[in-house]
Amino acid sequence: MELKRPQTQTQVAILSFTCFSLFILTVGLDDQVQAVLPPPTTKASGGERYVQMRAGAAFKIAVFADLHFGENAWSDWGPDHDVNSVKVMNTVLDNETPTDFVVCLGDVITANNFLIANATLYWDQAISPTKSRNIPWASVFGNHDDAPFVWPMEWFSAPGIPPLICPAVNSTYSGEEACSFRGTQRIELMKHDIEHDLLSYSSNGPKDLWPSISNYVIQVSSSGFLKKKKKKVDPKSPVVYLYFLDSGGGSYPGVISNAQAEWFQKKSEEINPNSSVPELIFWHIPSQAYKNVAPQFGNGIDQPCVGLINKEPVASQEAELGIMDLLVKRPSVKAVFVGHNHGLDWCCPYEKLWLCYARHTGYGGYGDWPKGARIIEITQQPFSIKSWIRMEDGVVHSRVTLSP
């Protein structure tokens, strides 16, 4: 979604370092670090990376959507929003201890607001609550993560365009590149995420799908022991597949292309040929199918949909190019999770699967609705996928069973 406020670039460099330093002081010293060790960087038989369930425990995923770090860094409300967003994530992770995995569901940063050299600083701030707890994560891109830089009107008012300061300390860019206004690129963000963080399970995805970047699969594997059956199982045996798709926006149209749909079809048939393993799908901008099941705007949320806020119409992708047709034909696909609409948090049944929104997690971006995060819980025995919303004040609501 488009933001109501543009962002300037003048004092961003100085203030981004200031905010980053304050952030380290307030968050980096978190003494409530979870005793959750990162899973091994290994691959399943199909070549996909996997995270392993803990013996005798459910596998819990926290979904953080639309964090929008880096807005209005020259004013008070921008940095304050980033601090408050960190508090939301800390609250969620503290209340949902232990969390096994985090999904950053797009619009982690607002790239149209700052120089490219500052993008990774804001990205690191957004990831820090997760990283400080040794929780692995994966991310998909939204329409603001690499949005073109927007020239703010403040630059052209008296006393004129202020001097630019382009930081070179700890920067992978040259001075000229750091001062670039071309906008942050998806591939640069993903490279930073992958190369600088061992806990990141994000991936560039197949090059033939670029400029669509974040297309990949992660396998949730068995703990290796089924308590009730009292028998060992292959620890690499899949319990659930997590698919991540780049829904575009920002530097190119907001769509999931036919090429991505074909990739999903080929990949899913390769690693899950009989649809015997449940599958969950994550992308940022809702498909047009969300419009078909959306509760009537302004009239609350009635069954069979489950949720709390219904404050705006669905803002969907620009076109349907095949992905939904494939998903509804696979009985293994249990749910799709999206962000983008800050004023929606419902889950509604569609054909034989569920279409779900996350909850607006960050204080950045439009809307003043209370913040929170969607939680997904996967239990192996008996198998189930359940979900709920955890709010910034600790309250839980909108519990739903997505697969018995």
TrEMBL record:
Residues 59-342 form the Calcineurin-like phosphoesterase domain. GO terms for cellular component: cytoplasm. InterPro entries: Calcineurin-like_PHP, Metallo-depent_PP-like, PAP14/16/28/29. The chain crosses the membrane at residues 12-29. The keyword Transmembrane applies. Keywords: Membrane, Transmembrane, Transmembrane helix. It holds the Pfam family Metallophos. One of its GO terms (molecular function) is hydrolase activity, acting on ester bonds. This is Calcineurin-like phosphoesterase domain-containing protein. It comes from Quercus lobata.
